[in-house]
Amino acid sequence: MQKRNTYNKNVQIANDTMYYIYEHIDTDINIDELALKFGISKFHFHKLFKEVMGINIYETIKSNRLQKSSNLLLTNKYSTITEIANMCGYSSQTSFIRSFKQRFHQTPKEWRNGGFKEYSKNILMNSEISSYEKNDFESIEPKIVKAKSRRMYYIRNKGYITSEAKKVWQKLQAWVYTNDIKEYEQVAIYHDNPAITPHNDCFYVAGIIPKEQKYLLETNLPFFYTPEALYATFEIKGKIGDVLRFIQWAYHEWLPNSGFETTTNPSYAIFRKNQFLEEDKSFEGTYYLPIQYV
Known about the structure:
Structural class: alpha+beta
Distance between the termini: 53 Å
Number of helices: 9
Order of helices and strands: HHHHHHHEEHEEEEHEE
Largest sheet: 8 strands, antiparallel
Number of strands: 8
Mean pLDDT: 89
Low-confidence stretches: none
Strand content: 15-25%
């Protein structure tokens, strides 16, 4: 029991750290202060984070900064490269360009001017979860909504792989049954855009939002509150893999021509039919794309 309690505590700390990184990606994140906040030594903090997440904290911060900036470069055409670098925590444009080129093998300017297209195409073509096809999404009419903040219990998994995602959702399903939750929503959060991030490197977050307030027996799952923010929503359906092409279309085609820009908040989908739980691997749901007025 002690070993399980320790593991659960470490998982909560690691996930709280990830949440902190996402929320403060535009700041100079201080690891010493974070360790102090959790009441543990810096050495132990680094050790438990890598054991849980499979990657060290500094690499996680760097990766998140670059992934967020790669999105913003595509969608925020009214923002300069320096402004985008600052939004993602870079105080120097020189260091941003150097890091970006090291990761994406092109400069931010080259990426913004179309270099992302071939990069993204290769990501999807090399994914086991998607066959690359040019689907027609133009007929889907978006709605602009302001989503409320809600409490979500979740499991974070490194790697957006079919077999692993299915196991995560099955575990959440067991958690729902254990707690006798009758009404709930199934949510997939895409902190890492799977259209431009190799799927082995993606952190896939699967979550449950109970519609009822009740005492939960199994409370060892970490939780956080979804942001109250502005979104464009799209009603989507299809087979496994289609959601990736839709995300690619939303960020690469719809957003740049929409008159909106995106934020560092992640996109997410609320599924009424879950592709990882349905026998026919189909999905149906609402996709939430973070936007801001410009």
